[in-house]
Design a protein that fits this description.
Strand order of the largest sheet: 9-10-12-11-15-19-16-17
Oligomer: single chain
Helix content: 25-40%
Strand content: 15-25%
Number of helices: 15
Radius of gyration: 24 Å
Structural class: alpha/beta
Bound molecules: ligand BES, manganese (II) ion, zinc ion
Length: 499
């Protein structure tokens, strides 16, 4: 990632250098601190707004270089639109919009966290800061040369001006933990598969120990002993060994039932013997985005000392074609004892999850399990890149995730499950087969997972569309948005933390 800028909070004061960012409403009305900072330059803003037809529409910007009467090199005014129409999640977005208008050459930026009616609340100001951090993220560690105009973003220092510095800083600590979690997830997804293979991924989760997370790594021998043959079968054609990592954060009641998050961690998916076409295969370095999200979430929860007991479990494999690789027609016996006939070696994510879901359900008896997986191309066909597919056996969890999705903008859309779909994966030779044909491909994949969760309340999020080649937004310019970390952090905060 690019070096994070120094981000701090200070009391409202007109800065003497750098870029000043102010917010106004759809009537170009400013708050009292902004008006005071502008002083006579307020007239300049009114004239410039008229000349540029800037109306204060939501997300619109007015930029004035070397504004007369101010000591800054640039004044940026961002429209918030009608204040009554603002949603809570907009503050993060406006943090991104604001810093997006600051030229990367600027050494310093000051953003006034103020609405026309007065100072933003501490949580809102901290949300702005979160948006700033997320927008400035760039994965550029492998760029050794740059063309002109492609210089690294170098905004060195960002100050969020607020009315109450101490409470804003306090609100920022948990957002900072979350930002670090999102950035960690993005880094893992962006990292190429020659660098980030299962063992290396497992090694990197070790950094969570510093935050008080217990990290247990199962190697091939451990998994053989446990009978996790579905997971091992996927990895058997790779020169890289498979791993399962179980992370545990105990911030809740001693002995209280944990909640659990499970991630698909296919570090590279060639398809195996059922090999994928060459076009865009490089994207399959991101087939571990579910696992990356779980690790990012564990980081965020531990770093902000969330009052909850939580398990994170990730199955890490590489799916390669090889003399030792699994074949179509092979039958594997899963840890649960159920057998699966492999029809297509490219339907590998469900095989990995079958064993990890069963492991977590039986070893940890969680309150619920939520798995995240870049599982099917079919979900991208169905929902595009805006919503993740959501499959569940529990209406309450669905309701909570819908609300957390709306609150964060990481949205989920429920898809159906049912016996008619379930029978599509019955096999002639084994208990089930790993594909159900072309139709309803995301649903039959979810049906297979459901056969491994028992009675545990469970949600499966198919993030193939949202997690890779992420849409460019005001708070993400990266190939990976780190999708899901903010969603699940919110779910935990709103519904599962001891208050
Ligand atoms: N990792 C892929 C799914 C995927 C596709 C993720 C595009 C992200 C973007 C998964 O392992 C896969 O190959 N699924 C197959 C299943 C099929 C063989 C039943 C698919 O979706 O084509
Ligand atoms: Mn695949
Ligand atoms: Zn895959």
């Amino acid at each position: 990632m690019a070096d994070a800028p120094k981000l701090g909070f200070a009391a409202y004061a007109a800065p003497s250098k750098g870029v000043l960012v102010l917010f106004c409403d759809e009537k170009i009305k400013f708050g009292p601190a902004a008006r005071k900072a502008l002083g006579p330059a307020g007239g300049l803003v009114a004239k410039a707004a008229a000349a540029e037809r800037f109306t204060g529409r939501s997300g619109a910007a007015l930029e004035i270089a070397m504004p007369a009467g101010l000591h800054v090199s640039r004044l940026v005014v961002i429209g918030l639109g009608k204040i009554a129409d603002m949603k809570p999640r907009d503050f993060v977005r406006f943090g991104g919009v604001a810093i997006g208008k600051v030229p990367s050459a600027a050494a310093m930026a000051t953003i006034f966290a103020e609405l026309p009616a007065g100072g933003m609340k501490p949580d809102q100001a901290a949300d702005l800061a979160l948006g700033v951090r997320l927008r400035l993220y760039a994965f550029d560690r492998y760029k050794t040369k740059r063309k002109e105009g492609e210089e690294k973003p170098r905004i060195a220092e960002v100050t969020i001006a607020v009315s109450d510095v101490a409470t804003a800083r306090k609100a920022w600590t948990r957002r900072e933990a979350l930002a670090d979690g999102v950035v960690l997830a993005r880094d893992l997804v962006n990292e190429p598969a020659n660098i980030l293979y299962p063992e290396e991924f497992a090694r990197r989760t070790g950094a969570l120990k510093k935050l008080g997370v217990a990290v247990e790594v199962l190697d091939t021998k451990d998994m053989k002993r446990l009978g996790m043959n579905a997971l091992l079968g996927v990895g058997q054609g790779s020169a890289r060994e498979s791993r399962t990592v179980i992370m545990r954060w105990n911030g809740g009641k001693r002995g209280g039932k944990p909640i659990a998050f499970i991630g698909k961690g296919v570090c590279f998916d060639t398809g195996g013997i059922s090999i994928k076409p060459a076009a865009n295969m490089e994207d399959m370095k991101g087939d571990m985005a579910g696992a990356a999200c779980v690790v990012g979430l564990m980081h965020a929860l531990a770093a902000r000392k969330a009052k909850v007991n939580v398990i994170g479990a990730i199955g890490l494999v590489e799916n390669m074609p090889d003399g030792k690789a699994q074949r179509p027609g092979d039958i594997v016996t899963t840890m649960s004892g159920q057998t699966i006939e492999i029809i297509n070696t490219d339907a590998e994510g469900r095989l990995v999850l079958a064993d990890v879901l069963h492991y977590v359900a039986t070893k940890h008896a969680p309150q619920f399990m939520i798995d995240l997986a870049t599982l099917t191309g079919a979900i991208v066909v169905a929902l595009g890149q805006e919503y993740a597919g959501m499959f569940s056996n529990n209406d309450k969890l669905v309701d909570q995730l819908n609300k957390a999705g709306d609150a964060t903008g990481e949205r989920v859309w429920r898809m159906p499950l049912g016996p008619e779909y379930d029978k599509m994966i019955d096999s002639k030779f084994a208990d089930m087969k790993n594909t159900g044909g072309r139709w309803g491909g995301s649903i039959t994949a979810a049906q297979l997972l459901q056969r491994f969760v028992g009675k545990t309340p469970w949600v499966h999020l198919d993030i193939a569309g949202t997690a890779l080649g992420s849409p460019q937004t005001d708070i993400n310019k990266s190939w990976s948005a780190g999708w899901g970390v903010r969603l699940l952090d919110r779910l935990v905060a709103d519904y599962y933390e001891k208050k």
